[in-house]
Design brief:
The chain is of the alpha/beta class and 191 residues long. The chain is built from 7 helices and 9 strands; from the N terminus they run βαβββαββαβαβααβα. The chain has a 5-stranded parallel β-sheet, sandwiched between helices. Strands 4-3-6-5 form a 4-stranded mixed β-sheet, with helices on both faces. A hairpin with a 6-residue loop joins strand 5 and strand 6. Helix 1 packs across helix 7 and helix 5 packs antiparallel against helix 6. It is globular. It starts with 6 loop residues before the first strand and ends with a helix. Bound molecules: guanosine-5'-monophosphate. The site of guanosine-5'-monophosphate (5GP) has 14 residues, from strand 5, strand 6 and helix 4.
């Protein structure tokens, strides 16, 4: 499919520095990257804005969109009980505008997307070590111990799945990691 390469799928355990990398990529990537806004049934955190950070939906609204086949993929993430999904309309919106879509999803979601778009640029981001990871997660100070433990467990499971991604990038040095991803995207655009 012609647009496949204009799709970037990014995953990585919480604490792998994903959000910082994403902010940098949206500004610095050598291709016009736009964030695909996911839908979720999770309640908004303070500062989060509907339609910008997520499309915040009730379970009923989510189920209705599922029934209407509006999702490219969806998953219950971190065994949280909350559903997250990529709306097909987000990719259409971005591609129609001639841009590249950046989708940040868990490994389950990434797997579904890679099946549908085998040419997508899939990147798995890792922190340098599990200890580093835990410390980043804790330093955010927004999660309860139970949530942290669950996320660490998910992270360990996710790490095992990193091999299914086309690229793996270690975020031990932010500038280097951003540069590495920019180089990947540049190479893809030149193809
Ligand atoms: P948070 O609740 O911290 O905003 O997000 C938790 C995780 O949900 C993210 O790190 C990401 O891996 C996953 N996620 C966000 N949006 C989607 C989506 O649309 N689909 C899937 N499968 N996972 C998502």
């Amino acid at each position: 499919m012609e647009t496949s390469c204009r799709l970037v799928v990014l995953s990585g355990p919480s604490g792998s520095g994903k959000s910082t990398i994403i902010q940098r990529l949206l500004k610095e990537a050598p291709v016009p990257l736009r964030m695909s806004v996911s839908a979720t049934t999770r309640p908004p955190r303070p500062q989060e804005i509907d339609g910008i950070h997520y499309h915040f939906l009730t379970r009923e609204q989510f189920d209705k969109r599922l029934a209407n086949r509006e999702f490219l993929e969806w998953a219950e993430v971190h065994k949280s009980g909350y559903l997250y999904g990529t709306l097909k309309s987000e990719l259409t919106r971005i591609w129609t505008d001639g841009k590249w879509a950046l989708v940040e999803v868990d490994v389950e979601g990434a797997r579904s997307i890679m099946r549908e778009y085998p040419e997508a640029v899939s990147i798995f981001l890792t922190a340098s070590s599990m200890a580093e990871f835990e410390s980043r997660l804790r330093s955010r100070g927004t999660e309860t111990e139970g949530v942290i433990q669950r996320r660490l467990q998910t992270a360990a499971e996710e790490l095992k799945l990193a091999d299914s991604y086309r690229h793996r990038v270690v975020n031990d040095d932010l500038d280097r990691a951003v540069r590495e991803i920019c180089d990947l995207l540049g190479a893809c655009a030149a193809r």
